[in-house]
């Protein structure tokens, strides 16, 4: 079955949904999105994702045009219409149409079902390579539609065989382009606490780590990251994915480390029972 899109009150096949060229998301980059997936046909951490979506809307100054209960019903309908055992759901909220290209009157909301693009299983053992890049996202607590730096870097990433980019500034790391980052050092699990998007999988992993390993949320230097015992990234599609190379620095043994393995097993067990 084809994917569908809810757009301002109407559900249509995704490939039949049309948005006008005066949309402020297109003209001004004025918009946000959120993204989650299902496990066993049920949205994962729905309440947490909804809270982040509404917080992003408030910070960006775009009125949220839909109630939580209504959105939840739409999400379940989109999941059912997809005909898939599991799918992804994307919310996109923009400033809406503006004839003068600047004045917001009524927002546009799209809720779209999509295929899931999971990590290749071997990468959970071998890990991924990332490239460092000096940059801090604008208003990083908002899941903005602005990903231009990642798009600009795509050719360079491909040329060196890197899967993603690790942002840092003034010697301090923050996040990857689409995911959070953790390090394991001296028996502690450490993750940045500012200039980041507060990821839902990040939040889940912090909860799963409770009682397993001491946790610190603090600044992490780029040097500390490159010399850590283990490094991994977390996101909706990646879950807990080892990072085994940063630029020319091999992390640990160059394979998944024991703490990363434990947390991956814990989140896999969690989602299997979701």
The CATH H-level homologous superfamily of the largest domain: D-amino Acid Aminotransferase, subunit A, domain 2
The helix/strand class is: alpha+beta
Task: Please write the string of helix (H) and strand (E) elements.
Answer: EEHEEHHEEHEHEEEEHEHEEEH
Mean pLDDT: 97
Proportion of β residues?
25-35%
Number of strands: 15
Overall number of structural domains: 2
Strand count, sense and barrel status of the largest sheet are:
9 strands, mixed
- Rounded radius of gyration (Å): 19 Å
Describe the 3D structure:
The protein is of the alpha+beta class and 274 residues long. It folds into two domains: 4-114, 2-Layer Sandwich (D-amino Acid Aminotransferase, Chain A, domain 1); 123-272, D-amino Acid Aminotransferase, subunit A, domain 2 (D-amino Acid Aminotransferase, Chain A, domain 2, Alpha-Beta Barrel), CATH 3.20.10. It is built from eight helices and 15 strands. The strands form two sheets. Strands 7, 8, 9, 10, 11, 12, 13, 14 and 15 form a nine-stranded mixed sheet that branches. A six-stranded antiparallel sheet has the order 2-1-6-5-3-4. The longest helix is centred in the first third of the chain and has 15 residues, at 46-60. It is globular and about 55 Å long. The model has no long low-confidence stretch (mean pLDDT 97).
């Amino acid at each position: 079955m084809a994917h569908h899109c809810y757009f301002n009150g109407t559900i249509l096949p995704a490939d039949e949904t049309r948005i006008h060229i005066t949309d402020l998301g297109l003209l001004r980059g004025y918009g946000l999105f959120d993204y989650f997936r299902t496990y066993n046909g049920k949205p994962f951490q729905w309440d947490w994702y909804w809270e982040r979506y509404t917080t992003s809307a408030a910070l960006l100054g775009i009125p949220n045009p839909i109630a939580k209960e209504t959105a939840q019903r739409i999400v379940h309908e989109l999941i059912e219409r997809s005909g898939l055992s599991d799918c992804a759901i994307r919310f996109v909220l923009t400033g809406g149409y503006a004839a003068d290209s600047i004045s917001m009157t009524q927002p546009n909301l799209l809720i779209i079902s999509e295929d899931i693009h999971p990590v290749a299983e071997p990468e959970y053992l071998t890990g991924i390579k990332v490239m460092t890049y000096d940059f801090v996202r604008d208003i990083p607590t908002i899941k903005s539609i602005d990903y231009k730096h990642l798009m600009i870097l795509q050719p360079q990433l491909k040329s060196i065989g890197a899967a993603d980019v690790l942002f840092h500034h003034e010697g301090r790391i923050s996040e990857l382009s689409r995911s959070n980052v953790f390090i394991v050092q001296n028996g502690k699990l450490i993750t940045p606490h500012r200039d980041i998007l507060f990821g839902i999988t990040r939040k889940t992993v912090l909860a799963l780590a409770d009682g397993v390993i001491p946790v610190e949320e603090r600044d992490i230097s780029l040097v500390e990251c490159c010399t850590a015992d283990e490094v991994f990234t977390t996101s909706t599609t990646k879950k807990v994915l080892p990072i085994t190379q940063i630029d020319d620095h091999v992390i640990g043994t160059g394979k998944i480390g024991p703490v990363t393995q434990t947390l991956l097993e814990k989140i896999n067990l969690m989602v299997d029972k979701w």
